[in-house]
Amino acid sequence: MPHDALNGPKALGAFLRAHRERLTPAQAGLPGAPRRRTSGLRREELAQLSGISTTWYTWIEQGREVSVSPLTLARLARALQLGTAERDYLFSLAQASDPESQDAADAVSPALLESVQQLRCPGYLLDSVWNVVAWNAPAQALFSGFLGSDPAPNLLRFMFLHPLAQHLVADWPERARRVVAEFRAETRHFPHSAPVREQVEALCRASPQFDTWWHGQAVMAREGGVRRFRHPQRGEVAYRQQTFYPAASPALKLVMLLPGDDAENIDTQPQNG
């Protein structure tokens, strides 16, 4: 199979052409015209709808080595009326980040919220800046004094700014260092995100330790493994962490803490303190 069959400028051009040819003028809100040789849009029509020159669009569709900005791709995606999966595929072909994707990616469906509540083990849902957007009773019991108490819980702020973190997380220095490296790895998905940038800047100002580790440039994939906690009522408890990424919300992370063979599970009812 040729190298350009699945990626590169030619693959991008072929994708755009196929979707241009299947979108009719009526679907695009353009007046119909007699004696059209094709039922789809002409190149000049799509260029006009996208606010770019016909010549520039033609070069993109021909697979020439030209630089296509994320904003141009976003205009083309809107003009072609691409669905979510199609739009994601378009940006992946161009090796670009969608400037409009974060809000949609962070959206939490009612079904996903219900799934978190149905878990029997501690479970919580993080968005792209690691706000804890949902959690269940076992998670609240484990993170007593944080979840259910903080009006806007955020895992990064908890690890570096909350007085409970260094006592609750048994191996805090190693875990906190790894959390920074994992967050840096995930920021590649939203390189132009204002919320991500603001989160990093705020933590660098508030936490010298975060600032040091962030500027250390370490990058690590988010992995499972044993997570140990020193709970004020239960003593030391251990879990095996698993992280899942919901297909319909790629910026969200569902974190599950599964009791290990040597772990003592914690009560499922929230506790105060």
TrEMBL record:
HTH cro/C1-type domain segment(s): 15-87
GO molecular function: DNA binding
Gene3D superfamilies listed in its UniProt record: 3.30.450.180, lambda repressor-like DNA-binding domains
InterPro entries: Cro/C1-type_HTH, Lambda_DNA-bd_dom_sf, MLTR_LBD
SUPFAM superfamilies documented for this protein: lambda repressor-like DNA-binding domains
PANTHER family given in the database record: BLL4672 PROTEIN, BLL4672 PROTEIN-RELATED
Official protein name in the record: Transcriptional regulator
The species this protein was found in: Chimaeribacter coloradensis
